[in-house]
Amino acid sequence: MLAGLDPEQRTAVTAPAGPVCVLAGAGTGKTRAVTSRIAHRALTGAISPRHVLAVTFTARAAAEMRARLTALGVAGVQARTFHAAALRQMRYFAPRLLHGRALPELLDSKVRLVTLAAARAGLRTDRAAARDLAGEIEWAKSSLVEPGEYVVAAAKAQRDTPHEPAKVAEVFAAYETVKRANGVIDFEDLLRAAVWGIEEHPDVAEQIRAQYRHFVVDEYQDVNPLQQRLLDAWLGGRDDLTVVGDASQTIYSFTGATSAYLVDFPRRHRGATVVRLVRDYRSTPQVVGLANAVIAQARGSEARLRLELVGQRPTGPEPELRIFTDEPTEATAVAARCRQLVTAGTPAREIAVLFRTNAQSEAYEKALTEAGVPYVVQGAERFFERVEVRQAMVALRAATRSIPGETPLPAAVVEALAAVGWAPDAPPAGGAVRERWEALAALVQLAEEYAATPPVLPIGEGAAVERPVTLAAFTEELHRRAAQQHVPTVDGVTLASLHSAKGLEWDAVFLVGLAEGTLPTGYAKTPEQVEEERRLLYVGITRARQWLWLSYASARSPGGRNRRPSRFLPQLDRSGGSERAGAGPVPRAERRRNVVVSCRICGATLLAGGDRKLGRCPTCPSDVDEDLLERLRDWRQRVAGAQRVPAYVVFTDATLTALAERRPGRPEELIAIAGIGPRKLGLYGESVLALVGGATVDAICPKESLENPS
Q1: Does the pTM of the predicted model rise above 0.70?
Q2: Which own/partner pairs from 126-132 qualify as long-range (CB within 8 Å, at least 24 positions apart)?
Q3: Which residues have a Cβ under 8 Å from the Cβ of 191 and sit 6 or more positions away?
Q4: 506 lies in a domain?
Q5: Same domain, yes or no, for 91 and 223?
Q6: I want to staple 216 with a disulfide (CB 3.0 to 4.6 A). Which of 54, 150, 184, 237 is the partner?
Q7: H helices present in 543-701, as ranges
Q8: Which molecular function terms from Gene Ontology are attached (predicted)?
């Protein structure tokens, strides 16, 4: 188990019992480290798996943790979200705590009751306004703020409230009244009830603490005060707690989440073991370098725990930075590049377009549709909650009684889906219809994966058996995944907000709309809010494994008002030298006037150093003069030999390629090529212009003169 871990992961796994804080950067293998820690302690007899409670922030993360522990030979660990763990406990203890009554019904959404409460407070609201009020109530309750305390608390937190704070407080109070009258509770009430059950009932506390003795909390930077209160109640003064988090990925402060508990962990838990995971196994060094450059400028309390990642993957392409005249042009270019990637062999599901707000999605949906590129919108609706998927699962269960058992599983699934109108041919045109086809195609893909690698079924004492590859078994697996919200990957380009992209990763990532007023949003008024916007960009960058595109449009619409690029983009080297991601700022003496360079083929503004040298986008066709390029290389070799310097000191390969493509005819055209300054113009300009004009190398640099320099 320890052999495959790096030194820092091994330190986290083998840390002694007690408080352990794992500061884990993006892509550093935190899930592997924390599951290996649980398994190592269990398999060495230090703990019993049934006494472990591992808390995550999504049902999917909990399911992944359980699957990994099972693969490591450890069964019985409870891996749940805060709400799922509280719900399980409260349902069990409700008869005892509520004098024989069951736990009240849990609200799926606050919107309906908030609408009624707003009416009582004299506000007429539509659904969107009700959602905003519901969000503000959730923030207050998660922050342990009562209705009578809301006005002061909102002012202190500098909340951008949907209505005048006193009116929001009135709606908050009315909501609590309406909720009690309807005999229901919300998710915050559920956590509060769990805290109350433990803090006010010693017998309940004793039983829960006897069951759960070892705690693990993932994404600890995202806990809110109410969740921390519940965690403290579970612990009851004990300290066998492992937390995992990254302060640089704190992006949910607007919901009440705070990284303060992660930042202050060593102070609150004296003698805690602190481990830093910085080896990034997800992204190329180029992507890692850009991420480091962005977060290096961070300020505030979270910056105290800033991690400088070290890329572990082989070198990859430099991130592309592009400027477009307007948003439709930007979206069209992104869609065209997505199509090129898919045509070149990158699976569409391994490409993502990420933006700051969901309202930006429409332009990319339209552009991708016109380009014939399939896409899915992340977070719009959970996979197993979609109508077509629910219908398909009913059809699959019915088919278990009619399709012969010897039918290969993928073929059986295709046959069953015919009952809901799906056929394995080319996906239909159109957004919603195509999404429906892709969703059902994902079920077929799941069947193929299931048939290739059947999941194992634990049978106790670390033993397991393979589940049968039958339609009935596969249907059961789908229902299990539905219960755990284990969403399969649909084969389409992912469109997602930066918030909903948290925890995900792709081979190719497009970060779009990186303009002032969008990222950071114009609503970010305080330094803390601006810093959270910076962390959003950092999260977006670290989603990319191999290929990264960053872009913004100078205007929202054709002919619109000009906008500036996001202040978070690293300072670019305008001198034409290296713009390698992560490079430091250019010394003032080396800076040149900021000249906009456009692609001579498609007209897009170029920012990356290599692109500026060539004068074109890397995806636009090259028109290099191969004969000229060969003569330039020969000339460079002779000059470098005479000067006794490496060839790249004269001109780099990129500069030679740019010369052979652009073929400058005058000194001003020569110096316009990034990387050729006044000094090199004086040294080599006359020779280069002669070569471009057709002169031979021997005419410019006779071998005998170079072999016997004066």
Answers
A1: no
A2: 129/162, 132/162
A3: 82, 83, 86, 226, 227, 229, 230
A4: yes
A5: yes
A6: 54
A7: 609-614, 626-643, 647-650, 653-662, 667-671, 678-692, 697-700
A8: 3'-5' DNA helicase activity; ATP binding; ATP hydrolysis activity; DNA binding
pLDDT tier for residue 442 given thresholds of 50, 70 and 90: confident
Same domain, 481 and 495: no
Same domain as 116, residue 256? no
The answer, yes or no, to whether residue 555 has pLDDT greater than 50, is: yes
Lowest-confidence range among 27-36, 181-190, 356-365, 691-700?
A: 356-365
pLDDT-derived band at 595 (thresholds 50, 70, 90) equals very low
What are the φ/ψ torsions at residue 544 (nearest 5 degrees)? -90, 130
Cβ contact 24:33 at 8 Å = yes
**Helix runs in 236-360, H state only:** 260-263, 265-268, 285-295, 327-343
**Mean pLDDT computed over 55-66:** 89
What secondary structure does DSSP assign to 569-615, as a single string? SPPP-TTSS---TTPPPPPGGG------EE-TTT--EE-SHHHHHHT
Residue burial 651-684, b: 16+ Cβ < 10 Å; e: rest:
bbebbbbbbbbbebeeeeebbebbbbeeebbeeb
Q: What is the reported pLDDT for 576?
A: 32
Q: Detail the residues annotated as belonging to a binding site for ATP.
A: 24-31
Q: What is the CATH number of the domain that holds 668?
A: 1.10.150.80
Do both 215 and 361 map to the same domain? no
| Lowest-confidence pick of 49-63, 198-212, 599-613, 625-639 | 599-613
CA distances in angstroms from 257 to 82, 250, 254, 532, listed in the order given: 13, 8, 7, 12
Question: Is 445 a domain residue?
Answer: yes
Residue 591 lies in a domain: no
Of 485, 516, 539, the domain-final residue: 485
> Is the preceding peptide bond at 520 cis, omega within 30 degrees of 0?
yes
Residues 397 and 353 in one domain: no
| Whether residue 447 sits in one domain with residue 333 | no
Among 185, 214, 243, residue at a domain's last position: 185
Q: Are residues 365 and 432 in the same domain?
A: no
Q: Quick check: 485 pLDDT over 50?
A: no
Give the tens place of pLDDT for each residue, 502-531.
889 999 999 999 999 889 987 788 889 999
- Annotated binding-site members: 24-31
Helices (H), 453-511: 471-484
- Structural domains in the chain (count): 5
On the CB side of 627, CA atoms within 13 Å amount to 6
Q: How confident is the model at residue 580 (pLDDT cuts 50, 70, 90)?
A: very low
Task: Please report the pLDDT score of residue 608 as a whole number.
Answer: 59
| Residue 245, domain member (yes or no) | yes
Pair of tokens at residue 675: 């990387």
- Same domain for 674 and 689, yes or no, is yes
> What domain range includes position 130?
108-185
